[in-house]
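Morning, I've got a small favour to ask if you have a moment. I'm working through a protein record and want to make sense of it properly. The fold is given in discrete form, as structure tokens running alongside the sequence. Can you walk me through what the tokens say about the fold? Thanks so much in advance, here it is:
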Amino acid sequence: IYIGDGHSDICPSRSADLVFAKGVLLKKYREENIPCIPFEDFSTINKYLKNNY
């Protein structure tokens, strides 16, 4: 699991099985059609993990 929002997160996030992204990272993933889960805050992530794992 990788959680990120900035330019410095682009490279390390690519090796994760599940990426939560916002900001620059989300924009980059959308531009490249790479799957990720958008998030606003950690409650979004918590809810996703509770419902899916």
Notes: The chain has three helices and three strands.
